[in-house]
Amino acid sequence: MERPAIAGGKPVRDTKLFYGHQYIDDADVKAVTDVLVSDYLTCGPKVTELEERLCKLTGAKYAVACSNGTAALHIAAMAAGVTEGDELITTPITFAASANCALYCGAKPVFADINPKTYNIDPDCVESKLTDKTKAVVAVDFTGQAAELKPLLEMCHEHGIVLIEDAAHSIGTQYDGKFVGSIADMTTFSFHPVKTVTGGEGGAVLTNSEELYRKLVLYRAHGITREADLLENPSHGGWYYEQIDLGYNYRMTDIQCALVISQLDKLEMFKKRRCEIVARYNEAFSKLPELFVQEEILESDTVRHLYILRIKPELLTIDRKGFFEALAAENICCNVHYIPVYWHPHYQRLGYEKGLCPNAEKLYEEMMSLPLYYSMTDKDVEDVIAAVEKLVAYYRK
Ligand SMILES: *Cc1c(COP(=O)(O)O)cnc(C)c1O
């Protein structure tokens, strides 16, 4: 049996393979440098162009570009009317921003457990957490797979609650034949470099509601408006604007928007490659009873952002930490997405207790994210598989 590098053997490869990496080509570079020598670095035509492009891609009526995915969630929660005393239900298996948006609004994040097979929020758990204070649900398309949007939307609308879909992982994913962005009351994207499409930083909120759209535009820019029908006093002249609410500076620059537009030209190409890698991983790992392969709901045609390797520790002599470190010694650098949000000290101090969402906590103890990105070569993919197979064979009980 081959000895793992961590136990003194030879690593499967000599150079480190990282878990994620952006892909930037000459067209992206040109798109950015064209903006740099244009008249507008921010508040210019590239912002509108990106917003139109996102509507065209997803079928949503309105898009509001903003500075990052976190800002997108914040203004979405504000537009949903989330405020002091309210509750917002979300999953613990997400980046903290999905829950922090409630705290920004003075509301309380409430965590509903995940489905242990798909890892997305379980609509039945959401239902069990509903109270008369619930104002919104933030459903995360974890790894790129769409959340169970139909039952979630039905439940939310029955109770007069707003469904916000955190689609930071899932641009390009379709649910029931419709693109993510056109389905929930509001959908948020992130263009951070680890995501499928990047602007360096950037984000957007998509909606079909004109009312929500107008609020989002206001909250993105200080609560300031020039719209005649929103002004509360007579205009003083052509320069006049009013701050009619409290908003933020959550604008995205034209530089970032141009990069995202150029990246969107490659979304199909990104999707194809990511799907190939996922198929190859699934094929290899489904043969190993020591591993659990993430299940997909039929409705989701997924552009996968993350690939979760989940071990069954009861069948191995090492745990997740051991497996993660052994992979690193093979020069396969993983990450873990995510530490349950309410385990973080800030949330612990707010009074959340461990044990709240058992499925999420069990998943956290057993998972790691394998390298998955467009520019991985076939050799890179096979190195990852070889390393995982080698470790499973060596540490099998
Ligand atoms: C990345 C991410 C965010 C935040 O996006 P930023 O652009 O980094 O602010 C929010 N939710 C999820 C699920 C994410 O993965």
Would you mind describing this structure in some detail?
The longest helix has 19 residues. The mean pLDDT is 98. A hairpin with a 2-residue loop joins strand 6 and strand 7. The protein has 13 helices and 15 strands. Helix 2 packs parallel to helix 8, helix 3 packs across helix 7 and helix 9 packs parallel to helix 13. The protein is α/β, with parallel strands linked by helices. The chain has a seven-stranded mixed beta sheet with strand order 1-9-8-5-4-2-3, with helices on both faces. It has a three-stranded antiparallel beta sheet with strand order 7-6-13, with no helix packed on it. The structure holds pyridoxal-5'-phosphate (PLP). The site of pyridoxal-5'-phosphate has 14 residues, from helix 3 and helix 4.
